[in-house]
Design brief:
The protein is built from 6 helices and 4 strands, in the order H-H-E-H-E-H-E-H-E-H. It has one domain (5-131): Rossmann fold (3-Layer(aba) Sandwich). Helix 3 (49-57) links the parallel strand 1 and strand 2 (62-66). The longest helix is centred in the middle third of the chain and has 17 residues, at 72-88. The chain is 50% helix and 10% strand. With 135 residues, it is an alpha/beta fold. A 4-stranded parallel β-sheet has the order 2-1-3-4, sandwiched between helices. The protein has helices at 10-17, 24-35, 49-57, 72-88, 100-105, 117-131; strands at residues 40-43, 62-66, 94-96, 114-115. It starts with 9 loop residues before the first helix and ends with a helix.
């Protein structure tokens, strides 16, 4: 499931399809757990509410949620500023909660303190295709 909002219907979609659905939220939460993250910054268009709802239940509270702009340069600048603001608030790791944000950040999205859920999902899909295990 490569998008946040459809997760609101994940159980129904999985039941109707009869297929295992690899969740972008699940692979992100697992990556945060593997890092031992006890605090998480969250950057996204509006509020990726599905993360906000899930992270506290995993013991990973969101520190800050910010919006990014609409135009490419403004969006790029807003994404960079949002990440810097979350970092300055003390987030040891930041989830790039909308799939567009890594594209806006470019090479800066590769920083060690950033989590790119779309990349995690792609890697999990390849693992699942190769050996049947998303983990």
């Amino acid at each position: 499931m490569p998008s946040n909002t459809p997760h609101l219907f994940l159980d129904a979609i999985q039941k109707a399809s009869g297929r295992k659905i690899i969740s972008i939220i699940d692979v992100t939460v697992e990556a945060l757990r593997a890092r031992g993250a006890d605090a998480v910054g969250l950057v996204g268009l509006g509020v990726p509410q599905i993360y906000v709802d899930r992270l506290p239940s995993e013991g990973l509270p969101a520190i800050l949620r910010l919006m990014e702009g609409e135009d490419a340069d403004g969006g790029r600048n807003a994404a960079c500023e949002a990440v810097e603001e979350v970092r300055s608030a003390g987030a040891p790791v930041t989830v790039l909660g909308c799939t567009e944000i890594p594209l806006l950040l470019g090479d800066a999205a590769e920083a060690d303190d950033l989590i790119n859920p779309a990349q995690l999902l792609a890697e999990a899909a390849v693992r699942f295709a190769l050996d049947g295990s998303p983990g």
